[in-house]
Amino acid sequence: MLLLKKKKYASVKVCARRVLPESGGTCEDVVEAIHNPLLKVQEDARSGQIPLEKYVITKTLTKPPEAYPDSRNQPHVEVALRRKKSGYVTGCSAGDTVPYIICCEQGNVSTTSGGIAQRARHPDELKKCPGNWMVDIDYYLSQQIHPVISRFCAPIQGTSPSRLVECLGLDPSKPAVIALDDEERYQGCEPLVLTCPSCSSTVECSPIFSFVCTLVDQKQADNDFWLKMRCPRCPEEGGVGIISPVVANQVNRQAEKFMSNYYKGLMMCDDETCNYISRSINLRVLGDSEPGTLCPNYPRCNGHLVSKYTVANLYRQLSYFCYILDTERCIDKFEGEKKVLAEKEIAKIRPAISLASSTIHKIRDRCAYGWIQLNDLFVNI
């Protein structure tokens, strides 16, 4: 199934079993066997015939809920904080799995009245107060079912994402986009590690946004590296610390390492039981497979060769470093008095990392993956 490892999506398995037809039959039969169940799914959902348990999403807390700097953007953290405040013990600690349902207020079908995290409710909350909240059906149809079914049906002729939107009773003018939080967006990226020029020890740097959130919330930070720019293992007195050019140089070297990984051009078999890795390309073509994608272990392996480190991996990694060193856009994530406090704290940090930040941004912006060639979209008539 097309599921994320740490988040279990609701209704997807059930819907996939209903919608995806068995092989065989004409193209028209296959398309009809896809569209009709989707119409049935959305009718059952809107009429309240689907049990509440089918809407439950679960996600694991990787740390105590209070330690999340961007809790307001993460539904499972908001639910855990609310339950902990109410006196609950289970489901509120690191390692616990938090179930939640995305809801909307009774009588207010607009989903713009609050963020997804603010509209997340524990299943017990809905059972105790059914008159206050109701399941946000449009969210589940547009954000969970539609993207997955669209990916499954992409190779099938006779249907399209826009047609699937119509079958689900959604507004075709509103694109179905999954909103990822920063933890999910940069999952699997390597951390930014700086080396102290005095003692050669390393410091794993957390995002500046997370550090500033800790200061604004008046919590005890794990370390104050971004403020002092000094190695926590070196003595307070003496030493030069990690100055701005050193940070920029180390960031540049790590970025070059990621680019080197990409340009190695390693190919690997997508069959987990094969694990074939090579820089050589097999030019043999079988059936409708693309040249250079057939696994050399065929016929013992029916897998295909794919890039081990893609341009998307490179761009996401470089973007993660930009996110870690960001001192501009992160201010917009604060509101009210917290925004003023955040600006003051960031103003202390910015001079030391501005050179490193501009360096990694320039490197990332050279990556063609982040640009669209308008000449490819428009033609002269």
| Percentage of residues assigned to helices | 25-40%
> Helix tally?
12
Q: In angstroms, what separates the terminal alpha carbons?
A: 45 Å
Rg, please? 25 Å
Give helix and strand order, one letter per element, not per position. Answer: EHHEHEEHEHHHEEHHHEEEHH
How large a portion of the residues is in β-strands, by DSSP E?
A: 5-15%
Biggest sheet descriptor: 5 strands, antiparallel
- Silhouette: globular
Overall mean pLDDT stands at 82
Q: Pairing-aware structural class of the strands and helices?
A: alpha+beta
What features would you describe in this structure?
- The protein is an alpha+beta fold and about 375 residues long.
- The protein has 12 helices and 10 strands.
- α1 (about 10-20) crosses α5, α10 (about 245-265) packs across α12 and α11 runs antiparallel to α12 (about 335-365).
- The relative contact order is 0.09.
Helix/strand layout:
Blueprint: E1 7-8, H1 12-19, H2 27-46, E2 57-60, H3 75-85, E3 97-105, E4 120-121, H4 123-128, E5 133-135, H5 137-153, H6 161-167, H7 182-185, E6 192-195, E7 202-205, H8 208-216, H9 225-228, H10 244-263, E8 267-269, E9 277-278, E10 305-307, H11 311-324, H12 336-365
Antiparallel strand pairs: 1-2, 2-3, 3-4, 3-5, 6-7, 8-9, 8-10
Provide a concise account of the structure shown:
The chain is α+β, with helices and mostly antiparallel strands and 381 residues long. Helices cover 39% and strands 9% of the residues.
